Amino acid sequence: MSSRPRASRSRRFTMAGIGLALAGFVAWFAVGQLHLAGAEEASLSQGKPVTASSSEGRAFPAEAAVDGDDKTRWSSAFADPQWIQVDLGAPAAIERVVLKWERAFGKAYEIQVSPDANTWTSVYQTTTGAGGTETHTLNTTGRFVRMYGTTRSSGYGYSLFEFQVFGKPGGAPTTAPTSAPSTPAGPSTGASPSTRPSTSASPSSSASTPSGGNNAAGWIMAPNPVTDVKPSRAVPPNKGGFHEFQANCSVSRTNIGDDPIVFPKLPGASHLHTFMGNTTTNANSTIESLSRGQTTCKAKGDLSAYWMPALFNGNTAVNPEGLQTIYYKSGVYDYRSVRPFPKGLRFVVGNAKNTDADEFLAATEEGFECGDSYKNKNIPLTCSSERSVKLNIRYQAPSCWDGIHLDSPDHQSHMAYPIDTHTASGVVCPDSHPVAVPKLEFKMAWPVNGDMSKVKFASGAGPTFHYDFINAWDDRTLAAMVNGCIVAARQCDAQGHDGRDDQQPAPYVLNKDYLLP
To answer: Do residues 231 and 436 touch, judged by C-beta distance below 8 A?
Structure first.
């Protein structure tokens, strides 16, 4: 009799123990799984500064790969190699990288890490990429993480919905870097595909100076970087009107195969160019040499170098006649946030190998204009033969700077186009390129009309049009023009406007001490 209660009591203890164990397991499962799920959602790369070797167009910026939205994407130019890299902001212990590919994916690529974006360590590589969502488990540290693609899966570019980096902040910087491919020169430059050399410097190159030295990754560092800046989302008081001035410049040199940005110190290596502004621009140009030159621009303080591919009608070169207009405008809604270009800033606008006429048209005001014909994606085959009719183009440059580099390996990644917030803030600079600078807009006119079937650029058909810029303005003059015209909401020195808006206000002209120092 006495043994039954003891056995019952034992069973009760056993069942109670099992119940506690099950409760503990359930609690662990609920809390643990939630914790793990939360950890999986904490991408170190989301919203961080990101750069890429190129982009297919404004609709596919690098920022789209780290915005946490699987419906937006970054897409590169249609060439190999290409890369996209994210700055985590501080060293981190990197546990895995997730690539969410669109249908255009990388067949052969590497995942690389770096402590400084100069030396890179390859921590994963494949030649059999499958596309879709690819997860790579890693055990490494670094601040910068890069996908470096060498072979595409198709004739399109590399396209990522998301580039996610997971791990824990605070890892030690990478050490003992192994050999990795150098940063590519990129396809979106003014070079011809058959002759363009890499613009990456040798590993012994030092950080840059304004005269143009490259660091090991092919970047040119600004001597006075602009940091701790956020894009302005303020709504300015004057929401309309003009915020611009013009550089009115004539041809200074023409039909010369030099390009000091893409082919520095290689005379004759590029296709033929037409130069404006500085009279000394050549393959060996530096900021120091440009500062000793003269200018064909109306503002004598503008010693900048501007150039574009030469235009031909058959075998005959056709040069723009007289002053050509290069607008300096606000590219962002809050025009008060625009700053002068840093001395030595340089970039290439457009793509000498572009075959996408729609992409080209999107970067222009009206496409190719000729008489009453507008929005042409290519040079029209015919045009009015009236003497006054010319071939016109107005092509806009990106106006957001990363604040750190005067140049980048593809001569474009340090610059970005503004993005539309679809709010009262309007168009603003992306977080990766937070510094608003003047938006250049080339308005060129060539005296060709009638039969246009043989008209083309030295780089090829109409959509290959592009232009290059090296800022060599006198600092005082440029600051006066930016602050007195763009920031002050004025239209300054409007001589050379297109004549289609006769109702525009009379131009405001700054003190000639600034215009003619």
So the answer is: yes
Average pLDDT in the 276-297 region? 96
The one-letter amino acid code at 488 reads: A
* Range in 40-44, 182-186, 282-286, 323-327 the model is least confident about: 182-186
Q: What is the pTM of this model?
A: 0.60
- The residue behind tokens 């030159």 is 293
Q: What is the DSSP string of 429-468?
A: --TTS-EE--EEEEEEEE---SB-TTEEETTBSGGG-EEE
Using the predicted structure, report yes or no on whether residue 367 has a pLDDT greater than 60: yes
Collapsed DSSP state (helix, strand, coil) of residue 138: strand
Sheet holding 466-470, edge to edge: 251-256, 273-277, 305-309, 466-470, 346-350
Q: Please say whether the beta carbons of 82 and 52 come within 8 A.
A: yes
**pLDDT for position 171:** 63
Integer Cα distance of 191 and 477 in angstroms: 32
| CA-closest candidate to residue 114, choices 123, 105, 103 | 123
- Whether omega for the bond prior to residue 81 falls within 30 degrees of 0, making it cis, is yes
| Per-residue pLDDT band at 493 (split at 50, 70, 90) | low
